[in-house]
Amino acid sequence: MYRSEIERIQKFYEISGTVFIECQAQRDWPITYVSSNIDQYGFHAPSLVEHHMSFSQMIFPDDLPHVRHCVKSHSEQKDDCFLMEFRILLENSEVRWIGSRVILERDENGDLRSYQIAVSDITREKKREETLHQFKGVQESFQQSKLIQMGEMINMIAHQWRQPINTISATAINLELLADMKQLSKSELGESTHFIQQQCQAMSETIDTFINFVKPVKSKQDFLLSHAIRAVLQIIGAQLKNHAIELSIELDEDVTLNGQEDLLQQVLLNLLSNAKDAFDMSRNPNKQITLSLLSDPEGVILGVADNAGGIEKQNRDKIFNPYFTTKEQGKGSGLGLYICKGIIEKSFLGSITYHPLEAGSRFELRFYI
Q1: How does pLDDT run along the chain (369 residues), one tens digit per residue?
Q2: Does pTM top 0.70 for this prediction?
Q3: 3-state secondary structure the chain
Q4: Are residues 98 and 120 in contact, defined by beta-carbon separation less than 8 angstroms?
Q5: Cβ 294 vs Cβ 266: under 8 Å
Q6: CA 68 to CA 60: how far, in whole Å?
């Protein structure tokens, strides 16, 4: 490419903010020309050429093998040009993402003579991509955790329904027996029918709670904290009772929060379920879980405490990390507390922290009001 042509291209690129670089088609690609707007990356154009700096020296070391492979591949395929993205290392050790268009300049015999490279800073776009990727990852993790909890909830509903189904069955057998013996009175029939209706109503409410949990609330609104807790206990209460776990609730019934109630229910369900599972590995016969509320000038703190033995010291800093679990293999996804942290911080603009107790654990959920 003639020098006058390069200078015209260089002027065009300078206007657009794109840097133009010419390199020899040799190993490490010695720089023979660079436009003056390279200074936006902290380099001085004349010194790059005078000191015979190679383009490979500008490339981030981890990306250099990839760049070498791309250049070699396109050169061997006799391509005229190709696109490439990689990182460069600035003189101040800052790393930038670069989008480049590489033109392969050949002589009259078809042999490679040089590379003309148009370089643009795409760091901002890459950061947006990374943020979007992380957001999608959180969404996928949230859905995965939601599905896991739905499975656990179905199991809880099965436990919740077992007793009323058994009592309904026993009542029906008793009615049939009394009818066969011609001892079924109108009052007995009325009482039994009313009892069955009560049991069915309780089972229907359990299903409603499950449906409300699965169906997300899209907008934030004010809700009573006590209502969210009661909804969760409708799902897990029977399991806590079956495991002989005493639940103590020390709350103000009128405390109101703003947010998506179903998301807080998911957090509480996860914390209570974790506490229940922790008792399976605990030798404490007096199993207790306490829900308590503290107020301060900034807002309220909801505490979920248990006496199930606590979390080992070396694991305490990891419990909110994705895919970390202290449960046996196959019994935990490692997403529960990670999702809980995301919900409290992003949906409620609050925080969740772990505090070891002498005989167990305490999770604190802070809500700013």
Answers
A1: 445 555 665 566 566 678 888 999 988 999 998 888 888 888 888 888 888 889 999 999 999 999 999 999 998 888 889 999 999 988 888 899 999 999 999 888 888 899 989 888 998 888 888 777 766 666 666 666 666 666 666 766 776 677 778 888 888 888 888 888 888 888 888 888 888 888 888 788 777 766 666 666 567 889 999 989 988 888 888 788 888 999 999 888 888 999 888 889 889 988 998 999 889 888 888 999 999 998 888 889 999 999 999 988 888 988 888 777 776 655 555 677 888 898 899 889 999 999 999 999 999 999 987
A2: no
A3: CCHHHHHHHHHHHHHHCCEEEEEECCCCCEEEEECHHHHHHCCCHHHHHHCCCEHHHHECHHHHHHHHHHHHHHHHCCCCEEEEEEEEECCCCCEEEEEEEEEEEECCCCCEEEEEEEEEECHHHHHHHHHHHHHHHHHHHHHHHHHHHHHHHHHHHHHHHHHHHHHHHHHHHHHHHHHHCCCCCHHHHHHHHHHHHHHHHHHHHHHHHHHHHHCCCCCCEEEEHHHHHHHHHHHHHHHHHHCCEEEEEECCCCCEEEECHHHHHHHHHHHHHHHHHHHCCCCCCCEEEEEEEEEECCEEEEEEEECCCCCCHHHCCCCCCCCCCCCCCCCCCCCHHHHHHHHHHHHCCCEEEEEECCCCEEEEEEEEC
A4: yes
A5: no
A6: 12
Tokens describing residue 363? 């999770």
